[in-house]
Amino acid sequence: MHEYRSHDCGTLRATHIDETVRLSGWVHRKRDHGGLLFIDLRDHYGLTQLVIEPSSPYFSVAEEVRAESVIRVEGKVVGRDADAKNPNLPTGEIEIYVSNMEILSQAGDLPLPVFGEPDYPEDIRLRYRFLDLRRDTLHKNIVLRSDIISWLRRRMTDDGFREYQTPILTASSPEGARDFLVPSRTHPGRFYALPQAPQQFKQLLMVAGFDRYFQIAPCFRDEDARADRSPGEFYQLDLEMSFVTQEDVFQAVEPVLRDVFTTFGNGKRVTPEFPRIPYAEAMQKYGSDKPDLRIPIEMQDVTAAFDGSDFKIFANMIAKDDKVRVWAIPAKTGGSRAFCDRMNSWAQGEGQPGLGYIFFRDGEGAGPLAKNIGAERTEQIRSQLALEDGDAVFFCAGVPKSFAEFAGRARNRVGEELELIDRDQFAFCWIVDFPMYEIDDSTKKLDFSHNPFSMPQGGMEALESMDPLDILGYQYDIVCNGIELSSGAIRNHKPEIMLKAFEIAGYDSAVVEKEFGGMLNAFRFGAPPHGGIAPGVDRIVMLLAEQENLREVVAFPMNQQAEDLLMQAPSEVSNAQLRELHIRLNLPAEKKSSPDEAS
User: Fold this and answer.
1) Which residues, at least 6 apart from 324, have a Cβ–Cβ distance to it below 8 Å?
2) At 583, phi and psi to the nearest 5?
3) Taking the model in full, what pTM does it have?
4) Are residues 202 and 213 in contact, defined by beta-carbon separation less than 8 angstroms?
């Protein structure tokens, strides 16, 4: 028999009754039932119930062993009495009568419990992550993550892609988020950067003739944390394809995502064919380029109903500026003054002056706004939105660019408050036709709106003849349940088009050559048309694990301040290390070390 175990803690069944077995694992829970001592023994694979009789020479040892101690036991497999069987446990038909027991590692006082999984402060959970990971839900999430990544690798290989590794130490890139910089010891004063994504390298692989690339790629960005974005590092299913159109990328990626969510989605419905929604349409209907399509609410333009009306706030805005629009957010079943007032208060809490509304009862509209615009205009709105008694509608007015984001949040809030969200599905869509350029609010100058390396729709002709604000790019996002899983594009593989695109955005050709010369120069030696995308692995797992924070699907995450509390990173380094790297610290005043420490 093996030194530590003949079976794992999730294997034994009724067919093993009367066998003598050896198990090792953690003491999950102890219970004293009328003299008999019961221990639930846990390992990676499951739980097995142990029974220690008072006459056993190991009874006193079992009494003293603490939760989460590691023990080894031997004993006989016995069938449980009918009323003691546990149908919710795979090993619930049997138990082990212990004949031998040894404590392999005694646990001290626990800073957080493993049994029961009560909510605990984040700092405790992260500082003792090795204990947190023993808890059932988190342990299952990390196993699920492994299974999903293994599935993705097999599927991509089966679909004709090959996995290639790209560098982790590379050059700093001026676009996107902040880089993590790594000082070079052998090249004083110069720095590597950790890759924000393998973008340029995967495109260079296409130039090198490798056709269909993928990688479960680590990416590093010095960004602030959010629930759906880890600080520091994350992983993505990075892929690139040569000689493809936008449609080819869709046909390659959509089945992979549909099937992975079907395989691991616990029976939830998955969108059978992802709708393609132009960016402008998404903003108008949903107030967001990552709409949650589980919410059956589409906003509509009802400017005509307020133009020239007696509701002077909106009417005057429309008269002064032809760019002003009024958007309606229908709220099925929300037709009560209490709910409408609650939404109005919420809007004020969001920094808005309020949220105008009409609710419908007894065949007519009610509320101050309905009285202002009159019955005919109210009926025009009700008819356009197909509303009935018991429903409501909310309004946002202004130049859409200034209020669309708020309107989108109001739409989501209505869906949440009225419980309109269909939570039994994964609702996917493609967002397409992103504008190539926009006016930067801070500088008032033209700049790229999304991805500067995308091929403009219409190519060079569009760049030379169209208003830049009307040019669309071959850029696309995948969205699921209101979460952006990835961005992608058909790449701009022609140097002359790339230089022109940057010129329109105000970048001199010398700057482009300096910052992106490696890739640009490669394109001068025969580059195939190519495109790709990079769905976020962490976000995929988060959705499939039904979690709301990436921390719950990453084994060793950082906290919101980008600190690893377990390993105490980032940490100070010695003066010798700094001297070796030719670095002198210049800390903010409140954090300055003594002159000796900073030398």
Assistant:
1) 303, 317, 318, 397, 398, 399
2) -120, 135
3) 0.93
4) yes
Token pair belonging to 533 = 């995308």
The 3-class secondary structure across 502-544, one letter per residue, is HHHCCCCHHHHHHHHHHHHHHHCCCCCCEEEECCEHHHHHHHH
CB atoms within 10 A of CB 359: 24
Q: Are 542 and 552 in contact (CB under 8 A)?
A: yes
| Token reading at 222 | 């010095």
* 587 phi/psi in degrees, rounded to 5: -80, 155
The strand pair at 94-105 and 46-52 is best described as: parallel
CB of 354 within 8 A of CB of 347? Answer: yes
Distance of CA 458 to the CA centre of its chain: 33
Are 98 and 51 spatial neighbours (Cβ–Cβ below 8 Å)? yes
How far lies 54's CA from each of 65, 96, 107, 246, 576, in Å?
Answer: 15, 15, 23, 72, 61
Q: How sure is the predictor about 596, in pLDDT bands with cuts at 50, 70 and 90?
A: very low
> What phi, psi does 231 have (nearest 5°)?
-75, 140
Taking the chain, what is the end-to-end CA distance rounded to the nearest angstrom? 60
Q: pLDDT for 223-250, tens place per residue?
A: 887 767 778 899 999 999 999 999 999 9
Maximum CA pair distance of the chain? 93
d(CA 19, CA 311): 83
